[in-house]
């Protein structure tokens, strides 16, 4: 977000993040700029926000005692994850518009065997939460 957020906009986001982080099973959250996909805020376990490719690279770097390489790989993994989320939201929004031009996307939920990714699009940001998949 910019330096002069709308009144209570930043506080509202911080409040939502605080409430979400206290929920059981929440592993991490990431807030992206809606227009550019830039990372605005990250909280929780950063490893939950990495791609499998970056996780493998970080593991390999840690075995070779290359701490800077492992940190760089982790950072790149989070950036890759953010880019994938941003692309997923944009393609989903396009789908919604193609189906019904008067409709709008409110929530995206992607559930796997291991985790669930919930994305709440806003006009200024994308709030993404990664949490453990609850047992059935």
3D architecture notes:
The chain is of the alpha+beta class. The chain has a single domain (23-132), classed as Dynein light chain 2a, cytoplasmic (Beta-Lactamase, 2-Layer Sandwich). The chain is built from three helices and five strands. Helix 2 (52-63) runs antiparallel to helix 3 (67-99). The protein starts with 8 loop residues before the first helix and ends with a strand. Residues 1-20 are annotated as: Disordered. It comes from Drechmeria coniospora. Belongs to the GAMAD family.
Mean pLDDT, all residues: 81
- Following the backbone from N to C, one meets helices and strands in this order, namely HEEHHEEE
Shape: globular
Kindly provide the radius of gyration, computed on alpha-carbon positions and rounded to a whole number of angstroms.
16 Å
For the biggest sheet, the summary is: 5 strands, antiparallel
* Portion in beta strands: 15-25%
Summarize this structure as a short list of keywords or feature phrases.
3 helices, five-stranded antiparallel sheet, 136 residues, disordered N terminus, Beta-Lactamase, alpha+beta, 43% helix
